[in-house]
Amino acid sequence: MVTTTKREEEREERVQRISELDKKEKHALLFGAAANFIMAAVAWIAYYYSNSEAVFLDGNYSFIIFLGILVALKISVVKTHTTETFPHGKFFYESLYSFIKGLMILGILLMSMATALIRIAMFFTGRKEEIPMLIFEPILYYAVVCTVLSYGLVYFYRKQNLSIGNMSILLRTEQKSSFVDGTLSLGVVVIAIFLIMGGAERGGDFVLYLADSIFVLILSSLLISEAVSIIREAIIEMAGGTLQDKDKRKLFEDVIYSTMPKDLIIQDIFISKNGSHYSIMIYITTNEPGYLRKDIIDTRNEIVRILQKDHPHLSLKMIPEGKIILV
User: Fold this and answer.
1) For residue 247, what are the contacts with CB-CB under 8 A and spacing of at least 6?
2) Tens of pLDDT along 60-104?
């Protein structure tokens, strides 16, 4: 088994690795915040010159992401702080952040759908003069730039999260948010090209006044599932539910089963996640009446030692049941 000196060295290595992971997460979030602020500013300028509600939706979405990242940066600093009330840290802030972010995204999409429906109703009730006509060129220029930036962020967040073992719920949430943002921008590109290439003339007043609203309505309804997915995962984590990442669960179980001595029988394994903190409970029993507490503790420490190399925020309990006898 591992000596005391060896454990101290591993503990120091783990602390250093946590610091490196936090730095990577913070730098990725800072980069994302700057990119989203730029996209929001460009969107509002483009909206002013184009009268496009789709562009306005995209800009508001980018600004919400920017504000959210500022909160995420604060969370990345305080999540590892321990207190008497939170002896394992404040990782629940990460899950709470994702939940609120998901609600905000859902709210923006629903509000945009409501605005689109109001414009459609105005058109068919003879009030089309109250609907501003679209100007297509600014829409196209804006959308191309923001599509490239948004999908670039998706790739960047994914790469950064993979480099830290895909442990950051903050980066995963921002990756999903940027995917939604990129899809919004890509949709704007498609509709702008269609209109510039003659779609406006062929469609008449309907296209000139309602193309934007129809697009917002369709795309928002398609993207609602992403917001619901963020909310669902956050609720499961905050409620202490089972780990939803099947690949991660299999990785943990493989290590546990390969490390467990043959005299200890695993009855069940429960794995949950709160933010970037993993909690594992292993229910064990044995047919060996003289099995020592020390052997169980040593086994537990060995499993933790292996798993914490790539998952530094981790706690593990081995719970004796059945015929086990502790001496």
Assistant:
1) none
2) 878 887 888 888 788 877 777 777 887 777 888 888 888 888 888
For the segment 250-260, what is each residue's pLDDT rounded down to a tens digit? 989 999 998 88
Question: Which helix (H) or strand (E) element contains residue 318?
Answer: strand 314-320
Check: CB of residue 108 under 8 Å from CB of residue 60.
yes
Of the options 3.30.360.10, 3.40.50.2300, 1.10.287.950, 3.30.300.90, the CATH number for the domain spanning 246-320: 3.30.300.90
Helix (H, G, I), strand (E, B) or coil at 289: coil
Q: Closest Cα to residue 178, out of 226, 129, 108, 144?
A: 226
Tell me the pLDDT tens digit for each residue of 37-56: 998 898 889 888 887 777 78
